[in-house]
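Troubleshooting: if your tokenizer reports a length mismatch, compare against these two reference records.
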Amino acid sequence: MSQRNLKCTVCSGSHSRLHCTFICKSCGGDYRQCECETVNRQSRPNKRQRNAEARETDSERNNKELQKRYDSLLKDHERLAQAFRNQEKETKLLGQQLEEKEKEYEEVANDAEELANLVRTKCEAIKTLEKRLAEAKKLIASFKQELQSARNSSSVTEPQHPDPPQQQSIRVSSHSLSSIHSRYDKVLQTMKDNNCSMANAYRLSGCPRSTLRDFIAIAELKKVDSRAFEIALANCQEESVRELEKMCRKSLGRYMPLMSTMRREGQLLPLKFDQRFYE
């Protein structure tokens, strides 16, 4: 059997291909008289080296991927941080706007409460005015009746020889002196009960000021000195109530110190007159 001629396909030497691939190790193992050291060839990495290179390649690839992910995470983190800062600014701005809205709401609520109180006050005032109007209408009706009765009594023909006492009683009734005294007492009592001003007393008692303004002296002379009032009334039998008022004013001139004391004590209305009132 003839011996088989071997020829290396790596270095063209007379040995097998395994010699150059696994034994020679780039012409370093010359113990079999290998002549491949004269041939320039590239050494091939063994399996361990290939595995190491593969591991290094995988590691580098993983490192690159991790670096990319890290860079992406950094960018995402920066974007989130910027978005958070922007959102924080918007939150502060919204907080300020909310505080302003709350202040405006409080002001509107206070205004609404004031308006509600004003409406309630006006409603109460309207009810009071309606009551006063009804009382005033009743008072006007009574005045009209008194005026009509006075006109009717004045139109009656007087007898030629009238009885003086009877004539006096008719004149007193026609001019309603008793109503003057009752209105004065009513206003004075209203001031004491309600501890109010004289203007409010006129309003609360339902007595218009004009019903007493022209007959104050008649009412006050009776309170200061009833005897002097009776004398003045007897002297004005043939005169009108206006003349009786003038005579009462003259009579009150000598009671001015006493009247001041009575006004302080609340026995008379707190009125002030000049010297011409008593002339």
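Reference record two:
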Amino acid sequence: MRKAIVIDPRAGSVHVTTELIGHFSIDSDLQYRADLSQLKYYIPPLDPDNVNFDLNINCGFGIIFIELRGHYQNKNRMKNVDHPLHEPDSSVPLNESEEFHCMFKANFAGISLLYDAKIDAISSQQLITNTLIGKPFESIGLKMFQMRIRHMRSTPGIISKCWSTNFLANANRIVVGFRDATNTVKVIKEYSMADLLRLSKPYCDVELCKTYLTVVLKTIKQSVTKDYNKCIYKFHRQPVKETNKEVLPLELTEEAPNNEMYLFLKPWFVAKAEEYRRTQQR
């Protein structure tokens, strides 16, 4: 089945609200932990306009990272301290298996969403214990750009990717490390989400991106009618012609269920969710 989704660029602003409803950690053994053990705090460098972090230098077990006073970063990730007042220990290698995630529910233009998002770091004046829910903190997104982007505007593709990975995670501040041709970080810059979009040339129209997503979500909601144990739905985006960018072709196929390959929710979670749904319907 093939669907042609028509996008109206004049649709206007898309209203989105998000709410933090939970969180969890993934430890070094890739085990789930219902706690804040992998929550990291971002502390800015003393002189962000004059740093000299060589990404080619190995620090501890061959892992490449840079120290930004309160956190470390390898080529793709930053590792932050686990307490807002702690100094980092450069002898401890970065374990990329460790992650911290938050669970959100959102209203995306009238469509209900439930999802998790990996959180790079938070900014907080105090150590947060037990739960993030109801506590004052700011989510921080961490990125690495080439040095030339600091002086030239970047492409919409790069900026939109940076925006999209932080928008629904409620990260309103992005910390960017700019590295030069020798793979050395020279400058650390902080951007609000609005300032980040101004780096794009031509301008990155995120409202149009949200309009696309709204139409796709509505199409999925209308198309998916069978339960997970009856059918697996696959949506394939087809190439868009340059002359007709306002039409988004989607190809929908239905396949037999294969829970071993596709089911991302554990059976115990599905059972509890079904039990909760039954109690709410009484």
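Descriptive notes for reference record two:
- Residues 77 and 142 are 7 Å apart (CA to CA).
- The first strand starts at residue 2 and ends at 6.
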